[in-house]
User: What shape does this take?
Amino acid sequence: MSKRYKKLPNDSKELSPDTIDKILSIIKNNCTTKFDESIDLSFRINNKQKKNEINLRTVVNLPGGTGKTVKVAVVCEDAKIEEANSANADIVGGDDLVEKIKNGELNFEKLICTPSMMIKLSKLGKVLGPKGLMPNPKLGTVTNDIAKAVNEAKAGQVEIRNDKDGNIGLSIGKKSFEDNKLLKNYNAVIETLEKEKSNLSIKGDLIKQVFITSSMGVSYKLKLEKSF
Assistant: This one.
C-alpha cells in the first residue's frame, strides 16, 4: 500500500450510504494521483434465480461521454465503405479486414459489421470472443446503419455486462468532468438497468448494492433512491 493511498480516508466502509450527488465531491478529493482518474461504479445484481441465472448484457449511451478515445473498426460490403469513412471509423474494410482479424490483427476497441458480413465474422469466434469484440445485434454492433453505430461508439457508449458472480463494473467519466456530466451518465446507467429488469425474469430487486470509487481511490457505498 503506497504512502499516497494511506493518506486517503480509511473509514469509508463504516459510513452510511448516501446519494451520488453528495459523494461525488468526496470521490474527487480522493483523486490525488497526477493523472485524470476515472470515476467507476461497481454493481452487485441479483443474478441467482430459482429457474435460471441472469446474464445481463446491453449498452448504455452516456450523454456526458467517457473521456476516452475509442478506436472503431467496421467490416462491411463495398457499398457501405464510404458511409463508414464519413462517420470517421478508424479502420474500414471487407474481406481484407476479415482476413487481417483472422491473422490476429486486433488493433481496435470496437468492431461493427453489417448483417451480410456477419456470417464471415462468426467463424472468428475464437479470435474475437475472448477479447469481447464479437459484434452483437443486441449491442447495436451488427447493423446496416453504420453511421449511427460508429457515432454512438465514439460519443460515449459503454457495455454493461455481469460476470458469473453478478458483478458489473463500468466507468462514468473522469475526475475532470463537471459533476453535472457525471450525474447524467450515472442516471443513464440506472435508467438502462431499469429497462433491462423489465426484460428479465427477476424476483425482487435487480440491484443489491452499488459502490463508487476513483481509479486509485477508496470505495463508497451509494444509496439508491429507487427500487429496481
User: Anything to note?
Assistant: The chain has a mean pLDDT of 91. Residues 16-56+162-221 form a domain with the Ribulose 1,5 Bisphosphate Carboxylase/Oxygenase fold (CATH 3.30.190.20).
